[in-house]
Design brief:
It is a single chain. This protein is an alpha+beta fold. The protein is elongated, with a radius of gyration of 47 Å. The relative contact order is 0.07.
C-alpha cells in the first residue's frame, strides 16, 4: 500500500524498461502528471498515445508501459549514477604507492615564542622541531644567544654531569663495610685484593660485548732494547694472553695449566702466549672469557686458603722469578693495563684502580727498578759508570728520589749503583716527579721514556737511566 510518504520497491525490470523507453522518460511523465495533463480524475494519465495506448508491464494494472506514475504515487527514484568503468572514459592514473609523502612543512616560530623556549632548551626538554628552531635562531639573534649561554651555565650548576660508570673504589668500600659487619671465615690476603678487584672490573667490561667487540683489533705495546714494539691481536686474543700468563701463577700453586698439552718453547709470558695463540685452529673468540674468569677465581680462592703464609713462595717467569705476593700484584697491574687497551679498542672509558691498589702497584715497580737498572748496565744499555762507587749490601749509596704525585702516590729512594744498596737521602743526586698513572703507563711500555712529562732536577744521566729502566719493566 502506497501513500504520500511511501515509495515502491525498486525493480530491475522496471529500471530496464525506463531506460529503453518506449514512451516518455520518467521525468517528463512526472512533469505532465503534476501539471495536470491527461486528466486527474480518470486515474490514467494521457500521453501522446491517448487512453487507447497499450499498457506494458509497468502500468497501473501491471500491464502498462510504466511511462507515468499512477495517481497518488510519487515519482520513481532516478537510477544511480553509472560507474566510470562502464562509461568508456579513461580511468585516472593510480597514485604510485612507492612515492614518499611530501615532508610536512617545518613549524614557524616567532621571536617571542623562541625566547620563551630558551629555558626548556637549556634543560633539553624541547621537542626535536623546537630544538632545531631554537638553535637556528641562536645563530641569528645575539641577545637570545647570550641568554641561552647563561641558562646553560645555570643548568650546569644545578647538577654536575657524572659518568655512568661505577666508581672503581665502590667495590672496595662495599666489601669493606660488609666485612666489618661480618668478618669472612677465609679472608682474601691484602696482596691478592688488587688482583681480585681488577679481574672483576675487567670481567664487568666484557660481559656485554658482542661478536664485533670481541674481534675488535687491539695493539699490545711494550718496550724492548730502548725501542717501542707492539703486536696486533683482538680483544679475545688479549684475554687469551692473560689466561696464559696467569697460568704461571696457577702452575706454581699446583693448579691446572691452561695450556694443557700445548708445548711452549720457553716458560716465559711471551712464549706461552704465542703457544696458546698458535694452538687454536681459529682465532680466539668470546669463549675464552669463561676459562679465564674461572682461573682467576681459582687463584684468589687458593691463595686465600693458604692463609697468607705462602706469599713468599717463588713464581718463575722464565728469565726471573717473583715471590707470590709480588706476582699477584704483577698480574693485577697487567690486568688493568690490558683492560685499558681493550677499552680503547672499543672506545669506552676505563678508570685507574683504587688509590690503595694503585699505590701497591707503583711500589712494586719502584722496588724492581734497581734490579732492572743493573741488568741494563750489564747489557751496556745504561750510561757509563765512571762515577760509580761500590757499596756493601745494605749500605747507603747514590740515590734518585722518585716522587709520584696524585692518588696512590708517594716517595721512593732508588739506589743507583747496586740493587743491594740502600737508598739514602744524604746521597741523593737527582729528583724526578711523575703522576701516578703516567708512571704506570711508562712501566707498561705505553709511554716512551723520552716523552714522559716529568719534573727533573739533578744528574741527567741518572734520571735517564731510571726512566729507561722503568720502561724496560714492560713485556708482552
Amino acid at each position: 500500500m502506497n501513500g504520500p510518504d511511501r515509495f515502491d520497491a525498486y525493480d530491475g525490470d522496471e529500471a530496464e524498461n525506463d531506460h529503453e523507453g518506449k514512451g516518455n522518460t520518467p521525468d517528463e511523465s512526472a512533469i505532465r502528471y503534476e501539471s495536470g495533463e491527461g486528466g486527474r480524475g480518470t486515474g490514467t494519465p494521457s500521453g501522446p498515445g491517448g487512453p487507447d495506448r497499450p499498457e506494458g508491464p509497468g502500468g497501473p494494472d501491471g500491464s502498462g508501459s510504466g511511462d507515468a506514475p499512477e495517481r497518488g504515487r510519487p515519482p520513481r527514484i532516478p537510477m544511480p549514477r553509472a560507474s566510470v568503468e562502464d562509461s568508456g572514459l579513461p580511468l585516472p592514473a593510480p597514485a604510485d604507492p612507492g612515492d614518499p609523502a611530501p615532508p610536512p612543512a617545518p613549524p614557524v616560530f616567532e621571536h617571542p615564542v623562541l625566547k620563551a623556549l630558551l629555558g626548556a632548551w637549556a634543560l633539553a626538554a624541547c621537542s626535536a622541531e623546537e630544538a632545531t628552531a631554537v638553535e637556528e635562531h641562536l645563530g641569528e639573534c645575539g641577545s637570545c644567544a647570550d641568554e641561552a649561554r647563561r641558562l646553560r651555565e645555570a643548568v650546569g650548576l644545578l647538577q654536575r654531569s657524572e659518568s655512568l660508570d661505577l666508581d672503581p673504589g665502590l667495590r672496595t668500600r662495599v666489601l669493606g663495610t660488609c666485612l666489618e659487619r661480618r668478618p669472612p671465615r677465609i679472608p682474601v690476603p691484602d696482596w691478592a685484593a688488587a688482583y681480585d678487584a681488577e679481574t672483576a672490573r675487567l670481567d664487568a667490561l666484557l660481559q656485554d660485548f658482542g661478536d664485533a667487540e670481541w674481534h675488535a683489533p687491539v695493539r699490545l705495546r711494550w718496550f724492548r732494547a730502548d725501542e717501542s714494539t707492539s703486536r696486533r691481536t683482538t680483544v679475545a686474543g688479549v684475554i687469551a694472553h692473560l689466561l696464559g700468563v696467569d697460568g704461571l701463577v696457577a702452575v706454581a700453586l699446583g693448579l691446572d695449566d691452561p695450556l694443557g698439552d700445548v708445548p711452549s718453547r720457553q716458560p716465559t709470558p711471551a712464549a706461552r702466549t704465542e703457544a696458546l695463540w698458535s694452538a687454536s685452529q681459529f682465532p680466539p673468540t668470546r669463549f675464552v672469557r669463561a676459562p679465564w674468569r674461572e682461573q682467576s677465581h681459582s687463584l684468589v680462592r687458593t691463595v686465600s686458603f693458604t692463609g697468607g703464609g705462602a706469599g713468599k713462595m717463588p713464581v718463575p717467569y722464565g728469565d726471573f722469578e717473583l715471590p707470590l705476593h709480588d706476582a699477584m700484584l704483577d698480574r693485577a697491574f697487567e690486568c688493568w693495563v690490558h683492560a685499558e687497551d681493550i677499552a680503547d679498542a672499543v672506545d669506552y672509558p676505563y678508570d685507574p684502580p683504587s688509590p690503595r691498589h694503585l699505590h701497591r702497584m707503583i711500589d712494586l715497580a719502584a722496588r724492581m727498578l734497581p734490579t732492572a737498572l743493573a741488568h741494563r748496565r750489564r747489557a751496556g744499555l745504561a750510561s757509563p759508570a765512571h762515577h760509580r762507587h761500590l757499596v756493601a749490601a745494605g749500605e747507603p749509596g747514590r740515590s734518585l728520589r722518585l716522587e709520584i704525585e696524585g692518588s696512590g702516590g708517594g716517595e721512593w729512594l732508588i739506589p743507583l749503583d747496586s740493587p743491594a744498596a740502600k737508598g739514602s737521602a744524604e746521597h741523593e743526586v737527582a729528583h724526578v716527579a711523575l703522576d701516578g698513572v703516567e708512571f704506570c703507563r711508562l712501566a707498561a711500555g705505553h709511554v716512551p721514556p723520552q716523552e714522559t712529562a716529568a719534573g727533573q732536577v739533578g744528574d741527567k744521566e741518572a734520571i735517564r737511566d731510571v726512566l729507561f729502566a722503568a720502561a724496560s719493566l714492560s713485556r708482552m
